[in-house]
Model the fold of this input.
Amino acid sequence: MKEEILGVTVNKETEQQLLDNIQNDIEMGRKSRIVAINPEKVMMASKDPALRTLLNESTYQIPDGVGIKIASRMRGGAIRERVTGIGMMDALLQLANKHGHRIFMYGAKKATVELAAQNIQTKYPNLIVAGTLDGYEKDPEKIIQAINEAKPQILFVALGSPKQELFIRENMERLDVNIFQGVGGSFDVYSGNVKRAPKLFLNTGTEWLYRLASQPTRIKRQMALPQFLIKAVRDKGGKR
Done:
């Protein structure tokens, strides 16, 4: 179940519905990739056909960013729940903890990814952190070998977008993994190097406001949101 916004498809399902589908993918041995869709990515993809194809090729395009939910509602769409990239990562960690799945973490600095893995293992003792590899390792053969030897069901890639999505697309057929997710700077959060917004902001969908207050230089990125909403409402693309 997806709808299209400025040429980019986005899933309509709730987080729990997506998790049910993902668990079924693991049980059936299917390969699936997850990408977070926010207004900034949609605006870039509307001008970049290669990026648009990269995003639309993914199995699950989660509605990250309150702007996606607002645009869907304004267009008469069905997206009612925001599913953030880091929120989905945490939901997958909970799924792995419940079912004893193995995870692998690739990306970020060595100290960051290792500390994040330690904290995750402490928080979710029933999952298995099968391995970690920092983002400074560039040899594809070494990366593929390390991941395959670890035998994870879930792979988190933290290389920044769209680099992480390109890595997943180029290598997923050679990787013995079921679920692939690009997670941006999430390892920094799990390591404790970066703090998430307080729950008040998370629950009200105003995490962007907290980040803007913390990093005023983000103002140019945030100014793209009104432009996105105007284009999305005017666009005659649709729901499917």
